[in-house]
Amino acid sequence: MVATITIEPGKRSGAPCIRGMRITVWDVLGWLAAGMSEREIMDDYPELQPADFIAVHEYATLMGHRTE
User: Fold this and answer.
1) Nearest-5° Cα angle at 25, 31 to 54
2) Which residue ranges make up each domain of the chain?
3) How many CB atoms lie within 10 A of CB 54?
4) Beta 5-6 vs 17-18: how paired, if at all?
5) 39-55 pLDDT, tens digit each
């Protein structure tokens, strides 16, 4: 399964979400920054899959390289 980051204007104020869920890229990055492991996050949110973390990191990397 390929993880996809989606942006919907009416969902989470247009924040980038994982596969259309209400879990945002920023939620996941915040949990990781707070010291949670991917396994701990998936235990709390079983709808997440390992590929979602790759998509989160790729999205954050791309947004970090924006020049706008």
Assistant:
1) 90
2) 18-64
3) 12
4) antiparallel
5) 999 999 999 999 999 99
DSSP 9: T
- The answer to whether residues 2 and 49 touch, using CB atoms and an 8 Å cutoff, is no
Q: How far apart are CA 44 and CA 6, in angstroms?
A: 21
What is the pTM (predicted TM-score) of this model? 0.85
Q: What would the pLDDT profile of 27-41 be if each residue is shown by its tens digit?
A: 999 999 999 999 999
Scanning 22-65, the segments in alpha helix (DSSP H) are 25-33, 38-44, 50-64
Is 43 within 8 Å of 65 (Cβ atoms)? no
Identify which of 31, 20, 14 has the alpha carbon closest to the alpha carbon of residue 5: 20
CA distance 1 to 50: 10
What per-residue confidence (pLDDT) applies to 1? Answer: 44
Average pLDDT for residues 1-15, to the nearest whole number? 85
